[in-house]
Amino acid sequence: MVAAEDPQSARSQALAFISQNQIHKRFKLPATADHGELSVTYADVGVTPGTDASDVDTPTLLYIPGQFSTRYVSIYFHHIAAKIGVRVLVIDRPGMGDSTPVPIEQRVSVWIETVRALTSHLSIKHIALASHSAGTIYLFNTLFHCREVLHPQRPYAAAVAPWIDPLHSRLPVMQLAQLLPKQAFSYWDKTSRFFVLNSAPMVVSSGAFLHKARKLLPGSNNEPPFADRNRRKIEEEYGLAADVHAEIEKCSLPKIFGEPVVGVNSETLICLKKCSPEAWGKCWDYSKFVNEFAERERQRSLERGEEQSQLGTSSESKGKLKIQAYFAESDLMIGKKGQTYFEECWDGKDKEFQELWDFDTATVKDTNHESILSAVDVLEGIFQEVKASFQQG
């Protein structure tokens, strides 16, 4: 007979945490002329809003994860967000978790519908935005189509290790991946599941070699010194024991790949641009997207100025968008050329966009494309900005 596991063991605590209801929420997206009723799974972690009317505008962040990430990425956010006082939503995109798959060309439009429907469903007035890697595509489309859901006085968005078209990152391994036939990615979900659950080495869609399957998850493919420092800081400042933290990372992969991940196939094709421009929504070309978005922001700025003039008020900073980008020190998916391209897009020629938004970047020491997502300093910075954006409203 197998002895019962100690409920106080690190593994038991990790499994209990991962199984919490707040990580396994769902709702239905109503049918439209383009699709039937769709299921959506999501996590709602961090601070829990109260029922008092004063809590209606709880600082809330919509975090848009990368290609292989699902709502389970929220396990890295909960303790930090809860202490800082921020609510964090993480939505499974179509084909991930129990979110209903949709054709590749509908992924962005369904995402936009989902953002609007979920914020309405949860009675959320305003949100801040953040993304990691492939989530950048959905971040940009949310900024463009759902600008009104950002806080009106201090709107905020952050991009962590933003995905860059291989044309601009110029990484040979990424460009080689683009040469593979589309059919090679038709069963990418099944291939990934097999290698992950059997702990074998594998190559992800970026072409980056992962020596252990657990390296698909943020925080778990760090070099030990960084991982240890990260866990120690979380233990000391946010109360999550380091051994429990390590078990949470270890237990997450079987949970993620125990659910459908067929959406990875479409996400990979999108990242490698083996799809129509429609699959990227408004941002097939980042430079053109930023310029088009800038025109919208100019119009918003003019309208805001007229309103302030009529009200007899003036505050140049209120209502101005703040955008931050965090880059890994060593990033095999986007490289330094990709970082430079992204920065140049948002800075514009001769800082031409500085009157429209505040844009700043940071390169995070000792991190890579995956580990930067769980870096405490990055999460603290984002969550503190979110809280400040709501408090200064």
UniProtKB/TrEMBL annotation:
Gene3D superfamilies per the UniProt record, alphabetical: alpha/beta hydrolase
Organism from which the protein derives: Polytolypa hystricis (strain UAMH7299)
Protein name: AB hydrolase-1 domain-containing protein
InterPro entries from the UniProt entry: AB_hydrolase_fold (IPR029058)
